[in-house]
Amino acid sequence: MNGLPGTGPGGAAHPGGGVDGPWVLRDYALIADGERGALVDPRGGIAWLCAPAWESDAVFSGLLGGLGHYRVGPADPWNVWGGSYEDGTLIRVGRWVTADGVLSCREALAVPAEAGRVVLLRQVRAVRGPGAADVRLDVRAGYGRHPLTEVRWDHGVWRARSGPLHVRFAGAERAHVGPDGALRELLRLPEGGVHDLVLEISTTVRDAPLRPRELWAATERWWQAAVPDCSGTAAPRDTRMAYAVLNGLTSARGGMAAAATTSLPERADTGRDYDYRYAWIRDQCYAGIAVAAHGPHRLLEGAVRFVADRVLEDGAGLRPAYTVDGRPPPKEHPLPLAGYPGGGDRAGNRAGRQFQLDAFGEALQLFAAAARHDALDERALRAAHLAAEAVAARWERPEAGLWELEDRWWTHSRLSCAVGLRELARWTRVPAGAGWARLADRVLDTTRARCLHPRGHWQRAADDPGPDAALLLPLARGAVPPGDPCLGLTRAEVVRRLTVDGHVYRFRHGREPLGDAEGAFLLCGFMMALAAHAQGRTAEALRWFERTRSACGPPGLFAEEYDVAQRQLRGNLPQGFVHALLLECSVRLGATDGPGPGG
Predict the structure, then answer these.
(1) Can you tell me the distance from the alpha carbon of 136 to that of 67, in angstroms, rounded to the nearest whole number?
(2) What pLDDT band is residue 521 in, cutting at 50, 70 and 90?
(3) pLDDT at residue 180, rounded to an integer
(4) Which residues partner with 120 through β-bridges?
(5) Does residue 67 carry a pLDDT above 80?
(6) How many beta carbons lie within 10 A of that of residue 25, not counting itself?
């Protein structure tokens, strides 16, 4: 591999080559359009953006120590940062208080999006006093390999190339090309002044005018249509934010990226850092089921379509993960980057070759949720039949399970399948339903015989008597009746052995204390809230819900894990399934007289 300017041994980029230093994960905001997403740092820098698609090479990779940047922020380094999202959108307004005034930058990825074209909108405003904004653009495709070339001013816009990508930049009429090939401008505004910048990165040459007013208006309309009213939920604003994140992660083709990033460490220097820019079947189902708890929505329709297509194509060979357009994820391979501190530098994901039985159970639950809303078409019903057949053929064999570990007889997978089979039989009312219900009873009875601990709580696996917080979700969704003692006993065991300071961990790693091996798992905190709600313990459910939803950064985004002692986010960002479970919890806890599990 050829070395690059500002790179270390082997071509791995390191901070110093024009890259702003990393921030703690809680400080990054997200703007996304469904086809890709960008992380924005507190100083107005785009720290991460892959183009043209989620799994593509990054064009801005400063998050992992790479080259390429696009900063719009105050020229005065003496400032305090803040900002917020416009309610129910991923339109972010960054805000800086300087020594002389207040400057803001409104930013979004333009929607509706195109698969081969990203449009990044930024609108700078001098809120109080005159403002000066530093504008710097250096697109570096291929994780920094391709600097800007052929840079020229052409008919009112800057044009350039970065490797295979075509770049246009409007609104920077007074910019100049620096010695490093980057575009730079010092933008000066009078008090109340507003200035628009539009960056387009495309796989093909584009000539249509970049009109910021029209692009902003279309983006605002799209978000208004995408996020429903959530006033009847337990946390309306956060629920709308969850909808916005799920919309931002979900492609028009239905696939939802699990997160926007790769290689952010779950625990420093342990090798536990992965590429989550793919659509996990399980995560997709969690999102669809959560939305269905609130009502019919295009996210539910997209999830059903995407999962049904994968089941019909692959049957019992269903992969745990795909690209958002349905292709297998690439094998893991290293990147020419230093990596986020404590993390690695990898792309691709090996989980795509595992067999995970619980994914079929979640798919059945998703199809049942769609049937409840009369949203299960004939194609999806055929997929449901195939998924049920796969469960019948494979449920007795060891498999990798929810946590993608070694093949074992995991309890959670069987309980999830029992719920899915029973719910599908209940809501589809097809001739095969009676057989599905009988299979659900058989799976549950066998699992009870093998995996119910002598003390009455469910254990992690047939050969592991320890607790697992994942068991709470199928129990909350009706694997057993609410009055069955095993529900309360399992939840009590998880509380006793897997919680610290109101946060829930997945399972124990040998004899290590909780918090040493990994952070609290935010997904499991919301599972605990759902399980308490299923027991009718509303006040306790609300306590778990509120504690877990507090574990986000200032922008309101959740990662996979939370370091309880340091109060920091860990892992890739933002984690879609955490936002999905927040949404479901908020809906169920906000319903005063709503139906129980499955309703």
Answers:
(1) 13
(2) very high
(3) 87
(4) 109, 199
(5) yes
(6) 23
